[in-house]
Amino acid sequence: MDRSLSKAERTRKFIIESTAEIFNKKGYAGTSMSDLTEATGLTKGSIYGNFENKEEVALAVFDYNSEKVKNLISEQISRAASYHDKLMVYAKVYKNVTKGFITQGGCPILNTAIEADDTHNLLKDRAAKAVIKWKKSITDLIEGGVAAGEFKQDIEIPRTALSIIALIEGAVMISRVTNDLGAMDKILKTVEAVIDELKVA
After folding, report:
1. Would you list the domain boundaries of the chain?
2. pTM attached to this predicted model
């Protein structure tokens, strides 16, 4: 337990970590207050003493789950030698996301975006911002590769960045809804082919 945090901060952190898997698996609508009290061992009053409502817990959990994925990607990107290998990190990490090795229940961005599309504007906005940041990260890597002479000069960078994201999230969705990890592997080969195609011959 991190003693540098106040008791209230430690309690909030405990609630977020204890309910992260539930929200990611069941979604906002599917997660009940009894789920939260059961996961944390706290009363409804204790939870609402630290969060204004269930939506605020869900937002904090989304940040926590997406940060776990983002931190792993950043760590692996920092160790990759080439821009090509840095881009390939996304395919590798999201394969593990689908298998539940990083966040139980799949990709928090996809899960939240699908559920919150027409029902929860705050959650939808949080997922949209995560996608925009993701696009910028990929764009920056491609631009870096072009500047370094590793990638071709005539790449349509925004289109390529969005295509990589769409392929990865589509792979996550298809593999989970069909319960077929083989589908993930097949689609990720397309992601790898897209990234390979960026390289200067």
Report:
1. 62-198
2. 0.86
Q: To which residue do tokens 């589908």 refer?
A: 183
- Listed in sequence order, the residues at least 6 apart from 186 whose beta carbon sits closer than 8 Å to its beta carbon are none
> Closest Cα to residue 171, out of 147, 192, 144?
192
Residue 87 DSSP one-character state? H
Per-position b or e across 182-191, b if 16+ CB within 10 A of its CB: ebbeebbebb
Cα distance between residue 66 and residue 105, in whole Å: 12
**How far apart, in Å, do the first and last CA atoms of the chain sit?**
52
Per-residue pLDDT tens, the chain, 201 aa: give them: 556 778 888 999 999 999 998 888 888 888 899 999 999 999 999 999 999 988 899 999 999 988 988 999 999 999 999 999 999 999 888 877 766 655 666 787 877 887 776 678 888 898 899 999 999 999 999 999 999 999 999 999 999 999 999 999 898 888 888 988 888 889 999 999 999 999 998
Where does residue 163 rank: exposed (0-12), middle (13-18), buried (19+ CB within 10 A)?
A: middle
Question: Phi and psi (nearest 5°) for 81?
Answer: -80, -40
The Cα–Cα gap between 157 and 134 comes to: 13
The third-level CATH classification (topology) of the domain covering 62-198 is: Tetracycline Repressor; domain 2 (1.10.357)
